[in-house]
Amino acid sequence: MLLFNHPSNHSKVINYSKLTLACLLALGTLAIITGCDKTNTDTTATNAAEPSIDKTTSKDNSEEGELPIIDAVLTYAPEVPPPIDRDYSAKVRVKMETVETVMRLADGVDYEFWTFGGQVPGQFIRIREGDEVEFHLSNHPDSKMPHNIDLHAVTGPGGGATSSFTTPGHTSEFNFKALNPGLYVYHCATAPVGMHIANGMYGLILVEPKEGLSKVDREYYVMQGDFYTKGSYGQQGLQPFDMDKAISENPDYVLFNGSVGALTGDNALKANVGETVRLFVGNGGPNLVSSFHVIGEIFDKVYVNGGTTENHNVQTTLIPSGGAAITEFKTDVPGEYILVDHSIFRAFNKGALGILQVEGKENKRIYSGKTKYRVYLPEGAATQSIANTKPAPQKVAANKQQRIEMGKSVYDNNCAACHQPTGLGIPKAFPPLANSDYLLKDPNRAISAIIHGLNGKITVNGEVYDSVMPAVALDDERVANVVTYVLNTWGNNGGEVTPTQVKAARK
Ligand SMILES: [Cu+2]
């Protein structure tokens, strides 16, 4: 695109009159908005002569009769406004504010986000097919940039971008009619467009079909975006935007709802067994296409690309940059279901990870959990024909030294893939077990991590991890052995864990 040389101009022109600035920036966006003249007219009209917009409005209405006026309910992710229970069209007033604000990107990492409504993603808008929307876009007086909005639900040039172009401390108004039902992305389209989107300026607008959507128990709003920072993932402090990484499409963060952990730990989505869940999932980009997947669930229904086509029984659905999908499923068994971009390094190394916590009764016929665990000997038949004996009873460690030795193979087979054979882990992904202050403070934590799994924020040697360790299915003896091995390896300070201790921890 031809727009990327503009950010350097911004700081220089910022002191000129608002109108000159508007015009200069509009020129930069010629590819998106139609021209400078029109922008000027719009801006002036909004500032000085608001009634002229009312006139247009009443003219529209005289064609189709007066519509009742309703103020839109806007919600922040992951909440979704309530379903529409009207069976008639309305004039829906939407008031949004663009705000530039420093917020948490990850623990210890701040970022200056540009937002609709002060958060990323922007507020969810829910209207009905056939509604007329009166859109008010205000740009907070403290903003440094002008902003606008391009709603993909709009039929009309720029999706509203030209008409909504707004300098700091101003409000624009424009109207549109929602002709097509579907789930649509909205975003800022002010030059440099990529930078406004990369900084968080996107959200979703749902145009419910006239007949409405089917009733479900839970609805959630999830939106993916990619972020580009000067420092690499997790580097502390206030991180500036990195244009080079953005152009080469090499993000440091790929996130659901604007920050690492926005949907994990206390922020996890919730549902009960037997409920139907609908996820409105958008992708703001600016660059990446999402392979959206929920680990352990199958989407019973997907409205492909947020449109009318229903697909059924889907594992992973593509969500293009600037696109959306509606996914629906019924929860059948309790547990943690992990939302990921299945371009999987993004999930485990760049933050694109969320959790849906489902509570309720087990159903062992749908999902049993591990029912058996036994030694597998591919050459077993041959062995038997020679020895012709029953498999030897499982060896039990007779003393601490044996426990350590036996624990090593348990470790190599069950832990090393993540925590590494060296016990040093992988920075930002898997915490170290060597000299881990977290573990050494209380070895029971290791027992618990193995038998119950571990997720949420923990700090290990000053580094924060906010990831997921799945429970490892091992019997009491093996858990005792592996923890004892860990405690006595890599310079750790010793100790022994017994199967009795493990058994007690299972309760
Ligand atoms: Cu913007």
UniProtKB/TrEMBL annotation:
Any one GO biological process: denitrification pathway
Entry superkingdom: Bacteria
Ranges of biased composition (kind: Basic and acidic residues): 52-62
Reaction catalysis annotation: nitric oxide + Fe(III)-[cytochrome c] + H2O = Fe(II)-[cytochrome c] + nitrite + 2 H(+)
Keywords: Copper, Heme, Iron, Metal-binding, Oxidoreductase, Repeat
Entry EC number(s): 1.7.2.1
Binding note for cofactor: Binds 1 Cu(+) ion.
Matches recorded under PROSITE patterns: CYTC (PS51007)
InterPro entries associated with the record: Cu-oxidase-like_N (IPR011707), Cupredoxin (IPR008972), Cyt_c-like_dom (IPR009056), Cyt_c-like_dom_sf (IPR036909), Cytochrome_c-type_DH (IPR051459), NO2-reductase_Cu (IPR001287)
Name the record gives this protein: Copper-containing nitrite reductase
Gene label: nirK
